[in-house]
């Protein structure tokens, strides 16, 4: 029987400091897509919930959510195709459906979201809405858009976590919570802005409450995710930029919107501008957060201390440490 | 492939090559002399262009890394103070040389990530990218735990070692293993290679090379975290990181459930809050 343990412990050795991993050639198009899919998906889900609770009050929000959903599905698809290095073969994404690949099943989630949103939007055309069958179909499609929207808003966390990139892989749960809270916050903020613009202050206020709760949840999710990455020994390698973009995330997608909404509420609704600023900050924050995570991951993959730090036996989930060796 | 292929591999590698059997590489780094014949043979057979990076300053390694156009890479590690007492014997620095290659993992993270089906598992249990399918999404690149597969900027497709799929179909062993002058790279069926590698480790231990161990064979370091085995496995003499290998790679697909589950649960929680907050409230 040969020895099944590693010699010694890892003392930070590497091969001339060469990057152990390769990076995706992903740029702002991918982080932008992730933010757009999150915002649009959550907007549809929230509009559906609002419609179920009070159809008349949320008629405007429903129309806006359909528009956001259509725009999101269209620009999102365009961004994804533009990111391919052989874009004329984009349709090859539909050759198979692979449950182990979020890139694969995400394509179908996005497709379902686009189709459901388009059908749901038929109900917003007044000439068609008078036909009962169309109205009914649009209602069903809206539910479909809400469910696929929840998927579109969260599968992207699996897309990033299911890689070997140390920064994305170190906190799969944290990333899932970060992305879904940010999506709901941005989606609610976008709908709230529409309600403010349409002069429907009551539903605007309700949506801002949802956005504020999601923003609080996002702060918690970001703190938890950061702790997981530090525990895995990944954050240290990119600490400089990580602290900066974490601070930006907590400020733009946390403190600023929560303060804006609180100010408007404390003044009895006499500071709607503060709420509008809060909503805009949440939307901007959802883009900043995704882009920050993308870039930190690209940095971490080039660093042996981060990549090898995560790929140590102690970080293997649910495995028998002794069998895998590596005296720690 | 014609049914009466001559099976040259019987003479060069001592094995026939038949569909349905699992093949792989055993790279015994203890006998690698760093001649780079494998790198050259690979480039020649697969018609891969040279990289133009100049001198790296990393010992005799100017190849530096595996890439879309370099599928074998010989690492050169020069160690001083390598004796247990921390001393370097006169003129006796320690040389570690190792020919890196795609590990043809089982299961393979790149294959599991590929959304087009361009990456597939062949009848020889190797992993190959079909160039006429790949659309250059690049998701296989961060999926690989070993930093092997990469996109080529010229044609916009993912490329990596095919274990000479075309040669295997013709009954020839891969170009790199055929050319290796010290048999550091051995090609063969895994059910023969793995026991041979275990014997090699045992015999090295007997001769006092206590550091020798297998990387990537089933149950050994490198075959961890849901990756059951690396069909191209190695005999190493120092920590995996020294050779630019991760000590405990893991299968990325196992993180899908964690991320998606937590994401959807959080989303559902917020949707519940929204149900309470939106609409007419008393």
From TrEMBL, chain A:
Family classification: Belongs to the NrfD family.
Record-given protein name: Formate-dependent nitrite reductase, membrane component
InterPro entries assigned to the protein according to its UniProt record, in alphabetical order: Electron_transfer_protein, NrfD-like
UniProt organism field: Jannaschia seosinensis
Membrane-spanning segments: 30-51, 63-82, 102-122, 269-289
Pfam families named in the record: NrfD (PF03916)
Keywords: Cell membrane, Membrane, Transmembrane, Transmembrane helix
Entry membrane topology: Multi-pass membrane protein
UniProtKB/TrEMBL annotation, chain B:
SUPFAM superfamilies: 4Fe-4S ferredoxins (SSF54862)
Domain 4Fe-4S ferredoxin-type: start-end pairs: 23-53, 93-124, 125-154
Annotated keywords: 4Fe-4S, Iron, Iron-sulfur, Membrane, Metal-binding, Repeat, Transmembrane, Transmembrane helix
GO molecular function: 4 iron, 4 sulfur cluster binding; metal ion binding
InterPro entries: 4Fe4S_Fe-S-bd, 4Fe4S_Fe_S_CS, FDH_Electron_Transfer_Unit
Membrane spanning residue stretches: 256-278
Location within or outside the cell: Cell envelope
Domain of life: Bacteria
Record's GO cellular component terms: cell envelope
The keyword Nucleotide-binding is assigned to this record: no
Name of one Pfam family that matches: Fer4_11
Protein name per UniProt: Formate dehydrogenase-N subunit beta
Organism: Jannaschia seosinensis
Lineage: Bacteria, Pseudomonadati, Pseudomonadota, Alphaproteobacteria, Rhodobacterales
Gene that encodes the chain: fdnH
């Amino acid at each position: 029987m040969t020895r099944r343990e590693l010699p010694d412990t890892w003392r930070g050795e590497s091969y001339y400091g060469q990057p152990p991993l390769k990076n995706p050639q992903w740029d702002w198009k991918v982080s932008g897509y992730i933010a757009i899919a999150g915002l649009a998906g959550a907007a549809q889900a929230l509009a559906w919930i609002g419609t179920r609770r009070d159809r008349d009050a949320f008629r405007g929000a429903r129309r806006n959510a359909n528009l956001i959903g259509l725009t999101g599905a269209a620009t999102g698809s365009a961004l994804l195709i533009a990111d391919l290095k052989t874009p004329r073969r984009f349709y090859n994404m539909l050759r198979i459906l692979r449950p182990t690949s979020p890139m694969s099943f995400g394509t179908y989630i996005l497709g379902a979201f686009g189709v459901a949103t388009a059908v749901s939007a038929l109900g917003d055309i007044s000439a068609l809405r008078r036909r009962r069958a169309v109205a009914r179909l649009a209602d069903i499609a809206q539910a479909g858009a809400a469910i696929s929207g929840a998927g579109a808003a969260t599968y992207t966390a699996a897309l990033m976590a299911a890689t070997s990139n140390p920064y994305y892989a170190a906190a799969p749960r944290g990333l899932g919570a970060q992305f879904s809270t940010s999506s709901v916050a941005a989606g609610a903020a976008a709908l709230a802005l529409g309600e403010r613009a349409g002069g429907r202050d009551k539903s605007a206020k309700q949506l801002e409450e949802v956005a504020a709760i999601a923003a609080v949840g996002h702060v918690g999710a970001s703190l938890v995710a950061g702790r997981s990455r530090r525990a895995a020994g990944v954050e240290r390698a990119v600490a400089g930029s990580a602290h900066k973009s974490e601070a930006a995330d907590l400020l733009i997608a946390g403190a600023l919107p929560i303060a804006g909404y609180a100010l408007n509420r404390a003044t009895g609704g006499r500071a709607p501008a503060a709420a509008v600023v809060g909503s805009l900050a949440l939307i901007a924050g959802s883009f900043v957060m995704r882009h920050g995570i993308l870039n930190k991951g690209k940095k971490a993959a080039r660093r042996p201390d981060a990549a090898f730090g995560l790929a140590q036996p102690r970080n293997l989930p649910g495995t028998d440490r002794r069998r895998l060796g590596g005296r720690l | 492939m014609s049914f009466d292929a001559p099976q040259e591999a019987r003479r060069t590698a001592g094995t026939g090559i038949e569909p349905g059997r699992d093949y792989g590489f055993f790279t015994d780094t203890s006998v690698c002399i760093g001649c780079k014949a494998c790198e050259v043979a690979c480039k020649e057979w697969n018609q891969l262009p040279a990289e133009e990076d100049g001198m790296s300053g990393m010992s005799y390694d100017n190849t530096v890394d595996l890439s879309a156009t370099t599928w074998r890479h010989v690492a050169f590690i020069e160690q001083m103070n390598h004796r247990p007492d921390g001393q370097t014997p006169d003129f006796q620095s320690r040389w570690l040389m190792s020919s890196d290659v795609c590990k043809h993992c089982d299961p393979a993270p790149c294959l599991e990530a590929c959304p087009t089906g361009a990456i597939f598992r062949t009848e020889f249990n190797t992993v190959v990218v079909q160039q006429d399918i790949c659309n250059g999404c690049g998701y296989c690149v961060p999926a690989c735990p070993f930093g092997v597969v990469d996109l080529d900027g010229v044609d916009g497709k993912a490329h990596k070692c095919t274990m000479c799929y075309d040669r295997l179909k013709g009954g020839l062993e891969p170009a790199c293993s055929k050319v290796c002058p010290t048999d550091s790279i051995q090609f063969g069926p895994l059910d023969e290679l793995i026991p041979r590698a275990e014997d090699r480790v045992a015999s090295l231990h007997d001769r006092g090379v206590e550091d020798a161990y297998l990387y990537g064979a089933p149950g050994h370091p490198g075959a961890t975290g849901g990756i059951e085995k690396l069909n191209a496995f190695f005999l190493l003499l120092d920590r995996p990181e020294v050779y630019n290998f991760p000590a405990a790679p893991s299968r990325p697909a196992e993180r899908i459930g964690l991320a998606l589950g937590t994401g959807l649960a959080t989303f559902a929680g917020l949707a519940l809050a929204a149900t309470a907050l939106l609409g007419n409230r008393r």
